Amino acid sequence: MTILTTRVLIIGAGVTGAGLLRDLALRGVQALLIEQRDVNSGASGGNHGLLHSGARYVASDVEAAVGCREEGDILRRLAPQCIEDTGGLFVAVRGDDEGYVSDFSALCVKSGVPCQGLELRTARAMEPALSENLIAAFAVQDGAVDPFMLSLDNIAQAMSLGCSMRRNLAAVSMEVTDGRVTLVRCRDITTGGEVLIETELVINASGAWAGRIAALAGAHINILYSMGSLIITQDRIATRVINRLRPPSDADILVPGGTVSILGTTSIRVPTPDGCRPSVAETDHIIDDARAMLPILGRTRYIRAYAGVRPLVSLGPAGDDRAVSRGFSLIDHASEGVENFMTITGGKLTTYRLMAEKAADLACAKLGVTAPCRTRKEPLPPSSMGKWTEPGRGPKSWVESRAEDDIVLCECEMVSRSVIDAIVDEAKDMRGRSMLKAIGMRSRVGKGPCQGGFCGPRITGHLYDREISTGTQGLAELKTFTERRWRGFSPILWGVPLMQADLQEALHCGAMDLEFGPAPSTRDEESENCPATAFKEPS
Amino acid sequence: MKNYDVMVIGSGFAGMAAALFAAERGLSVAQTGATGGIDFSTGFIDLLAVHPIAEQKVWEDPFAALAALRRDLPDHPYCRVSDDEICRALEQFTTFLGHHGLCYRGRAGKNTLTLTAAGTMKPTYLLPCTAWNGVKAWEMKAPTLLVDFSGLKGLSARQIAEVRKDSWPNLKVARIKFPGMGGELYPEHMAWSMADPARRAELAQNVAPHIADAKYVGFPAVLGMTDTAAVLSHLEELLDRPVFEIPTLPPSIAGPRLRAAFDRGLPGLGVRTYTQKLITKAACSEEGFSFTAGSGSTSVDIFAKSAILASGRFFGKGLRSDRHRIFEAVFDLPVSQPKNRSLWHRPDFFDPNGHEVNQAGIETDANLRPLDAQGRVFHPRLHAAGAILAHQDWMRMKCGAGLAIATAYKAVASL
């Protein structure tokens, strides 16, 4: 059993929790961030990586539109390393709602969202992949943001200021005495060990899991779970963000991200935020719908699919999840009799900083801290922790600055052994027992065409060489990592990716018999979805 | 137009075996196909080790497993070949490889457990002789030194020792420098460099300080390309101990060694190989088959009286797919397959049941002749062999090379 003490405990290392950790650190407030899995494991990692101009919300949610516009400007200025300022288009094709099209630019003006009407041939010259059936096009200020780099950079700066983070640590119960949370009991999900945390204040930033965490303190939040699935193309289809100009619906946006494009999304109500995964039917639905806007999407090669669960705080009767505000909710549970417990949830990636600011304001008011928020003015420094998430950085550093005896462990994305070592070393006490997944989250490993089929076993070997893996635990981790990649890989298996999957199984099962041997390693909620075969081997 | 008795489509285990068997029967043979699967081979010849796959039941006696499988799965392609045919096929195949520098070894009627690069023990039927001392060392749990090389990413000796530490505690490891090379190492370069006895001496010198009480020394499989027996016996002499190889992660040296053996042996039997050419056009008539292999200015037109389709699965490009269906690449033969793509794969990659898509493939009659959509023989002289056949999962059943060789034998015998 371990006992930790912190002034503020933040639960959930999505982008909001990461932003909060930094905001508090800059105000001189010592905080600890805990996360049941790893950075951006929920909706923060399961989204488009879109920096909203606000134009998507001008018709439905003016407050969200204005918030996106303002925060987008701040991020472009203060965190440029995380942003690709691509610009965006809103386009309609024959058959789309013409009423919506004709109202669009006036609504943009009303929200102060810059929007420029385009001639159709100009739009098609800007983005040659657009359909010939275009009927309207507008330019807006959308961009792309790397949510992993964003969270890691926030955490890195906070850590440099004395705050800390623990991953694989799940809050399991809270002791509430005289209207205050006095102790948070946690479990290390990789070792099963117990960790107790004493704190003055708890901030619940657990996104879709916020209802569950609130319940630990006896508080109540009604959250709807809306799952959205997305697909990644092998190549970058367009230079800019391309939005379908119609009321929010499925498959209406394509966001570029480095060398790929991300197509989505859907909105399906699910009963629980755990274990969400995209399906074949959803993937096909997205492609069939989006082809009207970009016909190439019917022919192009896809790398993987993934899904995230949006936490929507329910305000009234059930209905269309998209009608629920995408604005955020800051809840002070003092009204429910828990003085030092609050929840920040909902919102968008683009407005994460504002959410952190508002939550930190409330936290500081409770703690009697008067230091003002500094994240609105101070740049977010790029960190060594965050830099390997960037596509293209691996090949660049390999060409420019490799050591003579270095080798490439991930060939699809050119991630070298020295980069893996740097990530492992930086993880320090966060290393835990799921290092392979952690490396995948902090770099491009497993994200290329092989989807971990080759780099997974190789990096496993390297982790054994470094004595980080012992016994059969490294194999178990490899299986967990492979199952996790499989979730996103299996829905897009036709054509070349199916050949790749054929090869992957020939390697993992045909050559190495990994369908035997240790069961996947982590004991978090995912394990329910993994085969629970006990350790058994041919004898 | 070039004329042959038989066209073999494919150059994996099944294609190589079919070309060999046909040529040894005195037929004139043309062979095409991309080198796909064989490049990723472990070099082991699996016959059958797991059945039923859902139960992960492992058999020591592959022929007992075959009897059970034929009883339980009447559509499995192994139901089309007898034990006797299987034995003759394996015998003829490994005899040929033995003549061309690749010796195989196993125990009659018994599977043998052998070490993989992951540290797992894999049941197989026939192993390259270079792996055999590893089997002995494992069975005796003998004190053994496992060597690996700085810069070779396909094998971690420490991983193997860690994974095996409860069952084989006497496994010690050493990472050494491979003589004459630095930076990233490739098995094929390393293997060719072992042709030089001076390099072997240097290698032995680098290993010697680590031997201590080890009775065996294991290496990543890089000990020679066409002369592995000579390389191994030289190293055994230098180290004064039995030596063995462990295949590295694919692509390992096993594929190039197999290809090298066939490249040396098949032309002498009169096989004309059109390397790295896929069939781009195929037409059938009563007389036989007209093919175009390759495309553009280097394409070749070939006529053959008979054809053997040994083009493999998705990775071998024998089966192709789009979002809606799976199809056969050369003749557009009907492919037995699940109803829709949602049923192709299971939610868990390692699900013991295996994936439905891996049982998709070509239906045949008892003589391995593909059937058309009406269930009739597609062409009296077209046969299919190997992984393209439906109702088998070679990866989970551990029957890849054995099934390929046995069905190739049967297909040729039925010509």
3D structure, described in words:
Chain A has 539 residues and is an alpha+beta fold. Chain A is 32% helix and 23% strand. Chain A has helices at 15-26, 62-78, 98-111, 120-126, 147-160, 210-216, 280-290, 352-367, 393-401, 417-427, 435-442, 455-465, 473-489, 495-511, and strands at residues 2-11, 31-34, 50-51, 83-84, 88-93, 115-117, 134-140, 143-145, 164-166, 169-177, 180-188, 194-204, 223-233, 241-244, 253-257, 260-264, 268-270, 302-313, 328-332, 341-346, 408-410, 415-416. In chain A, helix 1 (15-26) runs parallel beside helix 5 (147-160), helix 1 packs across helix 8 (352-367) and helix 12 (455-465) packs antiparallel against helix 13. Mean pLDDT of chain A is 90; it is low at 316-320 and 522-535. Chain B has two domains: 2-103 and 256-413, FAD/NAD(P)-binding domain (3-Layer(bba) Sandwich); 118-248, Rossmann fold, CATH 3.40.50.1860. In chain B, 28% of the residues lie in helices and 20% in strands. In chain B, the strands form five sheets. In chain B, strands 1, 2, 11, 12, 13, 14 and 17 form a seven-stranded mixed sheet that branches. Chain B has a four-stranded parallel sheet with strand order 8-7-9-10. In chain B, strands 3-6 form a two-stranded antiparallel sheet. In chain B, helix 1 packs parallel to helix 11 and helix 3 packs across helix 11. The two termini of chain B are 22 Å apart. Classes of the chains: A alpha+beta (539), B alpha/beta (415). At the A-B interface, helix 7, helix 12, helix 13 and helix 14 of A face strand 5, helix 5 and helix 10 of B.
Give a summary of the structure in a few sentences:
The complex is a heterodimer of chains A (539) and B (415). Chain A is α+β, with helices and mostly antiparallel strands and 539 residues long.
